[in-house]
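The material for today's practical consists of a large collection of protein records. A record pairs a protein's sequence with a compact description of its fold. Instead of coordinates, the fold is spelled out as a row of discrete tokens. We will come back to this pairing of sequence and fold again and again. Here is such a record, shown just as it appears in the course material.
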Amino acid sequence: MKTMKTSSTTERAAKERRVEASALADSIWVYHVALSCCSLEVEAAGGPRFDWERLGCRIVDDHRNADVLFVSGPIPRALGEEMKRIYGEMPDPKFVVAVGSCASTGGMFSLEGEHQLLGLDKFIPVDLFIPGCPPRPESLIHAMLRLQDKIGSKSKK
């Protein structure tokens, strides 16, 4: 006997997706690739003065457990392939944030050269760009709130 999908099962699946997306938006695990001075600002955002853990953000040690990849600092071309590998090993859904001018556009080191990437988006898709050299912890927290909004808006669909 075949069972047909009823509207109640599709409604239940939609509710489950909304609950899952809401839980993800409220507990974001960040894997931080710290390459330069912007990493100090990311660490300051997690410190006692700004405390982004109250928003549900937590820095983790393994990219296989992370929801968000934070990349800060100038990116050497050789590291671009490593970023692809890290991004590929992250579980879905995954998000990428380029922190600071160097990760976004190459920054002060943006001369076209064979060793420097002119932005992280040349290798992997980036969801948020945070401007600044270095960006303030307030702008990092603002970006995390925008990312939570983005994840939450997916749950409404």
